[in-house]
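Team,

Forwarding the record for the chain on the shared tracking sheet. I've put the sequence and predicted structure together so nobody has to dig through attachments.
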Amino acid sequence: MDVWGTAIIMIYLTFGGNIWTRAERGAAPLYDSFCKGWDKWNAKHPEPDAVLNDRDYPFFEAFDLCINPPALRRLLLSMLNPDPAKRASIADIAGYRWFKNIECCQYDSYDDPAKYIDASKKNATHVNGQKKIFCHNHLP
């Protein structure tokens, strides 16, 4: 799975399906709108190493309305850059602060873990004063 495909999976999860039929200009109105947002952003940032930040990223209305938190929105935008040469790599994604804060309750070993995360508790998602996201894998 590549970076683009991973972001498309998140789009399916967020929107309940795909939002464009083909990632080709002229093939789908929403993809055209997406590319237009990138075109405007790229015109304002001609430098080759320009990066998205909290206040400056391509505008795409569907993302602004439906993808939260904004850090996830920026992450997906960087993963879906229409220019493959400027698209974020897996290493880039792994370095994002938002991505690093995703906690997984599946341990690295297959032994039965001695500790479990009780997601029913009020503060189960807070660790050392920071909110964490807990992903659960309930494999038998």
